[in-house]
């Protein structure tokens, strides 16, 4: 009897862990969401979602998003929205951060800053290299192509039209902890996006700086890119 109770408890704990991971995965993809939104997407009750969110809040893996400041929508208080914290993002698998940081420190020590920039450029080109300027003549289509390539590379990205441009949002960054010390990774990524689109873009936010997503603004009208000066050898 005790063995059966133990097995039942273990099975319930496993299901709870799987559901909690699903909540984390959904917040990664959406950026932020209410308990009701999460419940609808996962097919579970809002009460069950709140229980998992309470556990994640206690563990420091999620936090309540600050109010948007948009008042006047219906009666009462707006529903709370939740988003992942840096520790919550680490649940998704960033176990090699320390090793990567050590490797890049060694690369800088023996090869200098230029070696780090070269590594960052090659890595960014691998993530976005399948998109070429001829394929992305339309900025909207190009942004969606880049978002798809970034998602394939593990960045969980999407693109959406906002005002006079398109925003590429990366809801997950597998190297955010590394990029916090080596901003060359973010800089190379922007350069690769500009190269693929053939236009200047603007980075609005980064997960490495504590923002909820890496957001890049792409203007609907092309802006001529300035060619970077060649490094002296």
From TrEMBL:
InterPro entries this protein is in? ArsR-like_HTH (IPR011991), Carb_Metab_HTH_regulators (IPR050313), HTH_11 (IPR013196), WH-like_DNA-bd_sf (IPR036388), WH_DNA-bd_sf (IPR036390)
Per the database record, which ranges form the Helix-turn-helix type domain?
A: 25-60
Chain coiled-coil ranges:
none
**Gene3D superfamilies assigned to the protein according to its UniProt record, in alphabetical order:** Winged helix-like DNA-binding domain superfamily/Winged helix DNA-binding domain
Q: What is this protein called?
A: Transcriptional regulator
Which species does the entry assign this protein to? Tsukamurella asaccharolytica
Species lineage: Bacteria, Bacillati, Actinomycetota, Actinomycetes, Mycobacteriales
